[in-house]
Amino acid sequence: VSERGRRAAAPRGTRDVLPGEAVERQRVIDVARDEFARYGYGRIVTPTFEETEVFVRGVGTSTDIVRKEMYTFEDQGGRSLTLRPEGTAPVVRAFVEHGMHKLALPVKLWYLAPMFRYEAPQAGRYREHWQIGAEAIGSADPLLDAEVIALLDTIYRRLGIPGLRLRLGSMGDPESRGPYRTRLVEYLERHRSSLDDDAQARMRDNPLRLFDTKDPRVAQVMAGAPTLLDNLSPAAQEHRERVLEALERLGIAYEEDPTLVRGFDYYTMTVFEFTSDRLGAQSAVGGGGRYDRLVEALGGPPTPGIGFGAGIERIILAMGAGEPGADGAVLDCYLAVPDAALRLEMLTLLERLRAAGLRCESDLRGRSMKAMMRHASSLGARYAVIVGPRDYEEGVATVRDMASGEQTKVPLGDLAGALTA
Ligand code: HAM
Question: What's the pLDDT at 62?
Fold first, then answer.
């Protein structure tokens, strides 16, 4: 069978955004952009791909992302490049590259960008997804943690995301994590017989990730495991308490979750995740945390930072919008010119109406008058502007209110004003 006529499809795990969803998507972006400005963030755009090294060093070699989810390729010059799987490492790379530590700190940057991860696709999980994200680099103040969380919370509230929960954890500082890890591994060694090969491998390279397990036997073992929250250093404990205090002052409800593990090696201290109960297994609408060692790991001076990323597709799913056609564009007017000879004449009228800010459409397929009226109502036009040969001679248009059917004559020169009134 010839492949020539085969129907092409979007690559597995990717999706097209059709105009019906585009309206809702734009609203998410507009609200986020507005809040980013209010909280003092400037926009940063980084390349779609980076040297692979940025993610290996930034995200970390024990993470699923670096181990098995990156879209890595070699370019014609033999460089290893990777499509951005997440936004934090590239932003920090740019922070270091442009010497931004010399600016007033913290430097606050926001982004809107597609992310690429070779994950198993399912509802709400794609191989290309879009994030809005923010990074505040250059302060270890716990009030900054609270402000970053408040920013994301405000965006969700303005969008009206239902069933929202905020979970909060701490990864501790490296000083608390080292000894804790030893305790956890000791505990796991004692329960080795309940761990499969996979879990035993995890135990060696990243035992904390076992809190994330889907395996019921492993989950049972983890339920009795010592938690990092109970083993924080005094400094990490103090930081955590200051963050909780500030969130309480701001009236932001949270739940502490000692098992909250996020899939990046760069996290230190505060980590958080927002979920919506309107989503299935992939319930996280956004998450983030502190990364006090990341700037150094990417070659900059020791500089703490914190940020978040929020998935646009998940936000839209949680809002229950995004069905194609659910929220299509609405037209102000539909210009109907039944006489073919007049269509060219009326082109400039259409342009004038659009220049006046009206959303206008017209027939571009040679429809009959009856078909034009059907077309106008299927596009949701408020008015049909009909210019028949007699109207044209008199220099007027017949304006029909599509909802009431009421018709009035309006001079062609007054149309824009009459329709915007
Ligand atoms: P993340 O939790 O991997 O964090 O992603 C942030 C959000 O992006 C998730 O909560 C989810 O809404 C969405 N998301 C992630 N993966 C997918 C996917 N495969 N399909 C659809 N949506 C997805 C980060 O990426 C960190 N860089 C966040 C951060 C910024 N931490 C500090 N600063």
Answer: 86
pLDDT at 355: 94
DSSP class of residue 8 equals P
Q: Which secondary structure element, helix H or strand E, spans residue 231, and what is its range?
A: none
Per DSSP, 99 falls in state T
Give CA–CA dist 255/299, Å, rounded. Answer: 35
309 lines ligand 1 (CB under 6 A): yes
- Per the DSSP assignment, residues forming a β-bridge with 68 are none
Centre of ligand 1 to C-alpha 21, Å, is 20
Whether 304 and 290 have beta carbons less than 8 Å apart is answered as yes
Among 63, 129, 278, say which to mutate for ligand 1: greatest number of ligand atoms within 8 Å of CB.
Answer: 129
Stretch (H or E) spanning 208 = none
Within 10 angstroms of residue 2's Cβ, the number of other Cβ atoms is 5
**1-32 pLDDT, tens per residue?**
567 888 999 999 999 999 888 889 999 999 99
Owner of token pair 């990864």: 171
For residue 113, what are the β-bridge partners? 131
What is the model's pLDDT at position 263?
Answer: 86
Question: Residue 119 C-alpha to ligand 1 middle, in angstroms?
Answer: 12
Q: How far apart are CA 360 and CA 323, in angstroms?
A: 24
Q: Is 311 helix (H, G, I), strand (E, B) or coil?
A: strand
CA dihedral of 275, 278, 282, 284, whole degrees rounded to 10? -20
pLDDT given at position 334? 97
Burial class of residue 6 in the structure, from the number of CB atoms within 10 Å of its CB (0-12 exposed, 13-18 middle, 19+ buried) = exposed
- Tell me the residue ranges of DSSP E strands in 173-321: 255-256, 268-276, 284-290, 305-311
Dihedral angle computed from the Cα positions of residues 199, 202, 206 and 211, in that order, rounded to the nearest 10 degrees: -20
Give the Å distance between the CA of 263 and the centre of ligand 1.
Answer: 9
The model's pTM: 0.91
Length of the chain: 421
Sign of CA dihedral 159, 161, 164, 170: negative
| Positions in the chain whose pLDDT score sits under 50 | 322-327
Distance between CA atoms of residues 217 and 233, nearest Å: 30
Residue 110 in contact with ligand 1 by CB distance below 6 A: no
- Ligand 1 centroid to residue 183 C-alpha, Å: 30
Residue 391 CB–ligand 1 contact under 6 Å:
no
pLDDT at residue number 97: 98
For the segment 154-203, what is each residue's pLDDT rounded down to a tens digit?
A: 999 999 999 999 999 999 998 888 899 999 999 999 999 989 988 998 88
